[in-house]
Amino acid sequence: MKKKTAMICISIIIFFLLAIMIYFLFINSQSKAPETLEEKYNVQISKYNDRSIFVIQPNQVESDKYILYFHGGSYMAEMTEAHWNFLDRIIQETGYSIIVPDYPLTPKYNYKDVFEMVVPMYQEIINKIAPEKIIMMGDSAGGGLALALEEKLGEEEIQVPSKLILISPWLDVTMSNPQIENIEKYDKDLNKEALKVAGVAYAGLDGMENYLVNPINGPLDKLKNVIIYTGTYDILNPDVKLLSENAKNIGIDIKIKEYETAGHIWIIYQEDELAEDGLKDLINTLKN
């Protein structure tokens, strides 16, 4: 009975996800910075491939460092209030400026559209800002995107940022790691089957075997100063460990900061002491 009930719940979740995806197929969903953020900081918005790029700077700029941030949302959702509040906190604590690309979202677009934007965009950025002054970050799907971008940059021999910091990254949209089953009962935020549907949409007709979609399978040899924050109650956690093992096998060290009982992107939600502990460590990692 429990198994049947679970299957019904999964079916309902997938139905609503498909309905949402059909809705987004006919609109051009884009992020918008909240007015409160624009009141506190110097927010500049430019267009790139018909998508917005937000550059958020403290009114009195005291640091020459920038964070290039890719938001999560299963590759189909725009920036949330939690994301903007999280970035606000980072600016307050570090004084860094933040660049937020509003990259194309599925199902209207797929990974090819995303990388047609972010690779040349990154090249334009480093023509103005030295890579050693840039920290690349991403959460969830944005973490997978950030890792795939760094792998792509390394493959094309383009200089990568000084650090790559990932928060609960989505590294394999196939969700095929057998260890996921051991964590599903603890994860209150993510659903494996629903993520697989979103992953197929992001991959498009020919992308499921491409490392830009599943960066866990990408070239790891050019990765530089990678730090990953992950929680043990997140179904994406097993792939973080697998990525670390794969990197270690070729002599690349990925620093994993694992938090017991933490769920998906818990740091960003800033809801409890566990999140505050993670955020304080993240701020320290950014500043040092």
Strand order of the largest sheet: 1-2-4-3-5-6-7-8
Unreliable stretches, pLDDT < 50, 5 or more residues? none
Following the backbone from N to C, one meets helices and strands in this order, namely HHEEEHEHEHEHEHEHH
CATH superfamily: Alpha/Beta hydrolase fold, catalytic domain
Q: How helix-rich are the residues, as a percent range?
A: 40-55%
Explain what you see.
The chain is of the alpha/beta class. The chain has one domain: Alpha/Beta hydrolase fold, catalytic domain (Rossmann fold). It is 42% helix and 16% strand. Strand 7, helix 7 and strand 8 form a beta-alpha-beta unit. The N and C termini lie far apart (53 Å).
Descriptive labels:
288 residues, alpha/beta, Rossmann fold, eight-stranded mixed β-sheet, 42% helix, 16% strand
What is this entry, summarized?
It is built from 9 helices and 8 strands. The protein has helices at 2-25, 35-40, 81-94, 111-128, 141-155, 192-203, 237-249, 266-269, 273-287; strands spanning 42-48, 51-57, 66-70, 97-101, 134-139, 163-167, 226-231, 254-259.
